[in-house]
């Protein structure tokens, strides 16, 4: 988060956005190269599925390209991109809920996630560690409301600043801080409730 | 007030507040954090756990399989520009269709011609009535009745006025007497 080169990157991003707004495909591809890994990870954190993360990321950039003419402040491109991504995740879960209601989701979720982790970490021990990590993260996140979870993930997993979060979440600064504050209090309480001998969270 | 903050350790809520936004803490608490190793360590430990969580998440996430590339759609303008051009084209065609063919649903409301027709018929009827009031005889008889008959209506009226001026009527004189 404390990147001394952020301002220079912002300037470059703003230039690329302006070029892309004028129909420069190469400029847009350069923007995608810069932000795709972050958006992809964001999607993976929320879906825990590589395939879904790929599809959603593709969709985010296509939408970004279609709507790039609407950006009035090119410097806000990154947070604007995260806003599209946050909305796509919401749509994704809405569809998942509908599918599960009508019984279209036939894939065993746990088995599916396990196979995903094999792709990420082929080594058995590492795979177990990662699985343990994600299980613990899920255990913490399920105590939070949707907004609190989104605020927590954007801040500590996606590493957005509070300012960027206001754009990404479409909320004012005070609301964003309140969600974050509540999320942190719950996370802290949850960590205190289940103290490990070797303190898992200290060791990572 | 700041001195009071400097004298005590941070509460749990104040720790959370410090993580959300360190600058939002009162100056006294910030000063306490600088001077108190216990509070500083507690804060650093929680911050480190959160940072570790983010780090672990990043390292355990895969990378995208391939870089994003726009679908090959040829035109130089971006999609949003081409879409607006398409929308303008369609609008122009619809407008042209309306102007050239004037579809039934677009022209004046259905009741309008009927109203116009009724007004014309009414006008004709009233003219006929006026004609009958002025002259009840059918046209064929009118020719006979008015044959060689000069119209005195105006001259009769004018003559009566002159006559009345020269020889006032008796009634008018009586009225004067009475008054
Ligand atoms: Zn202290």
Number of helices of chain B: 9
Interface with most residues: A-B, 48 and 40 residues
Overall domain count of chain B: 3
Rg of chain B, Å, rounded: 52 Å
**CATH fold-level label of the largest domain in chain A:** Rna Polymerase Sigma Factor, Chain: A
CATH architecture name of the largest domain in chain A:
Orthogonal Bundle
CA-CA gap between termini of chain B: 111 Å
Question: Strand tally of chain B, please?
Answer: 0
Would you identify the regions of chain A where 5 or more consecutive residues have pLDDT less than 50? none
CATH H level, superfamily name of the largest domain in chain A: RNA polymerase sigma factor, region 2, helix turn helix motif
- Principal-axes geometry of chain A comes out as globular
Radius of gyration of chain A, rounded? 18 Å
Oligomer: heterodimer
CATH class of the largest domain in chain A: Mainly Alpha
């Amino acid at each position: 988060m404390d990147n001394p080169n952020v301002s220079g990157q912002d300037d470059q991003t703003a230039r690329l956005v302006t070029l892309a707004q004028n129909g420069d495909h190469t400029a847009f591809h350069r923007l995608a190269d810069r932000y795709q890994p972050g958006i992809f990870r964001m999607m993976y954190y929320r879906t825990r599925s590589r395939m879904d993360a790929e599809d959603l990321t593709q969709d985010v950039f296509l939408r970004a390209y279609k709507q790039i003419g609407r950006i009035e402040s090119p410097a806000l491109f990154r947070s604007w991109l995260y806003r599209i991504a946050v909305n796509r995740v919401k749509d994704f879960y809405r569809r998942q809920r509908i599918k599960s209601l009508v019984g279209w989701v036939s894939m065993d979720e746990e088995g599916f996630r396990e196979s995903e982790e094999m792709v990420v970490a082929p080594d058995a021990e590492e795979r177990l560690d990662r699985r343990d990590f994600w299980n613990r993260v899920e255990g913490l996140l399920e105590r939070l409301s949707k907004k609190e979870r989104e605020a927590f993930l954007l801040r500590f997993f996606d590493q957005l600043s509070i300012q960027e979060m206001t754009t990404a979440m479409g909320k004012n600064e005070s609301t964003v801080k309140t969600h974050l504050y509540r999320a942190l209090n719950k996370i802290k309480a949850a960590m205190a409730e289940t103290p490990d001998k070797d303190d898992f969270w200290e060791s990572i | 007030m700041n001195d009071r903050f400097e004298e005590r350790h941070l509460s749990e809520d104040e720790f959370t507040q410090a993580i959300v936004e360190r600058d939002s803490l009162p100056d006294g608490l910030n000063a306490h954090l600088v001077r108190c190793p216990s509070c500083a360590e507690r804060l650093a430990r929680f911050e480190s756990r959160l940072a570790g969580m983010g780090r672990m998440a990043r390292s355990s996430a895969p990378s995208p399989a391939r870089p994003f590339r726009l679908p090959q759609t040829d035109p130089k303008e971006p999609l949003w520009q081409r879409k607006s051009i398409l929308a303008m084209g369609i609008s122009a065609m619809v407008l042209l269709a309306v102007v050239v063919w004037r579809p039934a649903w677009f022209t004046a409301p259905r009741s309008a011609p009927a109203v116009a027709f009724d007004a014309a018929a009414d006008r004709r009827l009233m003219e006929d009535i006026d004609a009958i009031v002025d002259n009840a005889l059918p046209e064929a008889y009118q020719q006979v009745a008015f044959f060689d008959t000069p119209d005195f209506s105006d001259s009769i009226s004018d003559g009566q006025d002159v006559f009345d001026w020269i020889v006032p009527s008796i009634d008018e004189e009586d009225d004067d007497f009475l008054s």
